[in-house]
Amino acid sequence: MSPSTRPLEGQTAIVTGASRGIGRAIAQELAKLGAFVAVNYLHSKEYAEQVALECESFGTKALPVQADVTKPEDVTRLVETASLYLGKPDILVNNAGIASHSLLIDTTEYEWNQVIAANLKAPFLCAKAVLPIMIQKQYGRIINMSSIWGIAGGSGEVAYSAAKGGLISLTKALAKEMGPSGITVNAVAPGVVDTDMLAGLNPEDRESLSQETPVGRLGTPQDIATVVGFLALPASGFITGQVISPNGGLIT
């Protein structure tokens, strides 16, 4: 490939929660653009290993790295391992997260804490771990995966909406802090995407969601990965503190 088609050549990316779904597509997209990719996973070792092989098929390097990104010591190990085997990170995609489906009145404190830890604490820990490296380089791309429910709120998903909304605020504030250091920080807020999270829906519910989306279909992981790949480019350096929502027109 020519340099114009591999604009991330020589860069290293860390993608959290990259063993399947949107994270898998993001890892592949960054590899396709030339980046070395650390494929983070929590439990799904075999899936992560497969994703790493898929990334390497694009002529780059990839490494599966197990880490619980809600734990500071694991995050430190993730960044150190990626730095040692792939190079110091230029790109961080905070994709790991968990969903929650319950009314607030039925949400336990334990469930609330779990959702906040996975969707908001983890991006904080990961950003804090890579920022010294990026500040030293005077370059970096941090991309936080939020949700349309972080923008609009979702009934029955109060904890998830609160976490993803908090992640948007973190994005906007951190972008202002890091702009002078050549580091951009943006959020991607997907709409309804056809991943494992929809596995429990029956065909009628899936069709209803498709019809509610103006473009007439559910999103795909690649729809989201394309946006992340764009924000990761060196040429995207004037875009920071933004929330881009690939949602098929579901919310505007």
TrEMBL record:
Alphabetical list of Pfam families matching this protein: adh_short_C2 (PF13561)
The record, for InterPro entries, names: NAD(P)-bd_dom_sf (IPR036291), Sc_DH/Rdtase_CS (IPR020904), SDR (IPR050259), SDR_fam (IPR002347)
Q: Tell me which UniProt keywords the record has, alphabetically.
A: Elongation factor, Protein biosynthesis
**Record family assignment:** Belongs to the short-chain dehydrogenases/reductases (SDR) family.
Query: What SUPFAM superfamilies is this protein classified in?
Result: NAD(P)-binding Rossmann-fold domains (SSF51735)
Q: Which GO terms describe its molecular function?
A: translation elongation factor activity
Q: What is this protein called?
A: Elongation factor P 5-aminopentanone reductase
The record's PROSITE patterns line, in alphabetical order, gives: ADH_SHORT
PANTHER family in the record: 3-OXOACYL-(ACYL-CARRIER-PROTEIN) REDUCTASE, 3-OXOACYL-[ACYL-CARRIER-PROTEIN] REDUCTASE FABG
